[in-house]
Amino acid sequence: MSIERQFLKSFFVGTGKRSVSFSLMLVLVGFFLCTVFTNCCLAQKKELALTIEVDISSSVNRSGGPIPLTLRLNYFGSKAGLAGKLRFRMVSQNGALVATYLFEDLFIPPGEQTYEFLIQPPSSAVWMDAYDFYPIFETQEGETFAYPEQLLRLPGASRRSMVITIGTLNNERLDVTQKEFGSELALEKRMPSLDSVRPNQKSIVTLSRSLSVQDFPNSALEHCVSDIVILTKETFEKLSIRQGEALLAWTRAGGSVAIFLEEKVRLPAEKTDLLNEFLSAPKDDPLVYQLSDGTWQFAKASTETLLLRRCSFGRVAVGVRQDSQLLSELYSPSDRQQLFSHLWKLRSDQTDLMMHSTDGNWSFDLARRSVVRDNINFSNINDPGLDQFLRRFRPTPTIYGNGLLAETLPVGMQMLPLWLIGLTLLLYIIAIGPLDYFLLGALGLRKLTWIFFPVVTVLFTVGAIVAANRTMQGKDEGGRVIIHDITSDGLIARENEIETVVPRSGGIRFVEAKQELLTPINPFRLGISPDYTAQYGPRPGETIEEAPPLFRGRFPSEAQLVEQVHKWSPRMTRKLRISTKPTPEPSRFDWTLPVNPEDRDSYLELTRRIQAAFGKNVHAMFLRPRPSPGAYDLHNFSEKIVLLGHGEIFQDPYYDESRLDLPGMNSPQRQRQDFLQDSTYSEQSGIYSVVSQLSPKCDDFLEDLPILDTSEKKAWVLLIAVQDGNVWNIYRQYIKGKL
User: Fold this and answer.
1) How far is CA 207 from CA 31, 33, 55, 163, 214, in A?
2) pLDDT at 449
3) What is the H or E stretch that residue 29 is in?
4) How far is residue 169's CA from residue 55's CA, in Å, rounded to a whole number?
5) Angle between helix 449-472 and helix 436-443 axes, rounded to 10 deg
6) pLDDT tens for residues 318-345?
7) Strands (E), 109-252
8) CA-CA distance, 403 to 655, in Å (whole number)?
9) How many C-beta atoms lie closer than 10 Å to residue 49's C-beta?
10) Looking at per-residue confidence, does 438 or 542 come out higher?
């Protein structure tokens, strides 16, 4: 085809070839058009050999959680199979590219095949809820085939989407009883005055998702698509041991699971042992066991019909029901409220209000103080304009970005001091002004001013660039924080790793992920103050567009993030790890020994054990929120007992306390916030005015990091932070103290 193009080009632009006959030109043009038409027809014919369809069930997604993408590929070509790579371009409704997903090394055999992928969602800050998905398939031979766009709906930032996954048998749809489980446990069901809200204006929507037992994941991270998992009928019995271990690992990491056993349906011994592991009961002293006639017995709780227990950082509910028995038939209204509160990890004060209310709903009153504290436009909790803010449950970024960024910047990185910048500008003005006039005048060379001026400008510019690079170039490009959540038996329930990179030059950055979920973070959405923005953010009048990320590979097994970075502009990434197999915490510290924060006589022995395990460069403390004396008190102090080091690491250097000194409030000012405190429990309005914890999801707003209920009086967290330069290892263990 290139020969025809060269000939036509020489025909129309060459001066010596215009004598070529007109008939020859028509022949060549006709040949060229026929070739193009034939290639187009062949390409169209080849395209029809493979069809790609996105299953509409992919639209059941939770806010900020990974997206389960189901593809149906049908290859009916003549080959034994089709090898290549599949690319998806996610485009918003206004035509902007949001993200690209690349799946390589695919082999598609003849016939219809179903592929399950897990993809990371766009940023939680995106308000749109509808996207066009453009599939592109490229064969090993390099042929590319584009397919028509397909609509994909995701929860936008204007509302919060929750997901309840209900296990089924053999890909069957949810029956009446299973649907009732989803509707009865929907988070918005117990929202006050829900009936007065239009369906399209609900700030919370809970979606029910069916999942066949045979499709239950073998990886704990794949359960992060759900807030709650419910097993009914014989689904728990049909789970393989590996599937059960994955579900247990996700639950220990912070998930919620409800298991409803069938009366008279016998379980094998290994499944009964697994069930007691969910309930954190030892094998030699089980909480649930089955009699010889198949009847289920709850040990130590024979009068209960429903067991509600913590499973490390998660929640578990176990009940017994007859086939096709509804929740409303099985439990009283009070029991159903307890089940609802337990699985959604409601705050203790919300649970108390709900249990003593006449309508069985949680309350908006607890959100009033949070809204007033966080919104400078309100100074009174009785302000009538406050009501419209109480129903806002959209994803909210955390507010501790300053402390996190300060501790993970490159080692030795410094900004040019203002006095040096001012002195340099002064010398530059002197050089191009008086020095130019008097020096060249004395030499009689004032005509060289137009040479002297650009030379001096270039020298000063080069000097400024060199000085800035030498000052800002640290020993590395950034640090990271690894948060290890430790169970009472010394196992690692989950690990969150947040890495900061300040590139020394612009370009492409590659981030690897193996057995992890991975998401990019824009640090300037995490409450970064104007002081940091002025140093590391875009300059006035300058706009740095955030290039859409490219995700290649398959989550969570092995994947890679490819993103565009800019010089000196910090970028963050977050990784979430949940090991399916129990993994002991590798230090020599014994996490299984009992710890009592109220027993001050034990502090000396505890600090000795901590230093022996983690070294001298360690900070350790007990932390809990101090419950407010009243529901309308705006200030909720933390109670911090420092054992080693000091309790002000990761502190926000630019925290503005003056905005919390509200008119008419006599409470003392709230203490300065830091990363350790804000990542342990959340006092923000919105979803955390109702719940105390979210199931793991690895979002870019870090919403699922808190593990402590701000209203639970007996709960503590033991925090141990170990520093190695700008790399921090933080260990957290939940402790149930005594009143």
Assistant:
1) 58, 53, 16, 5, 21
2) 76
3) helix 22-47
4) 19
5) 140
6) 998 877 788 888 899 999 999 999 999 9
7) 111-119, 130-139, 144-146, 150-153, 160-168, 204-212, 228-231
8) 9
9) 15
10) 438
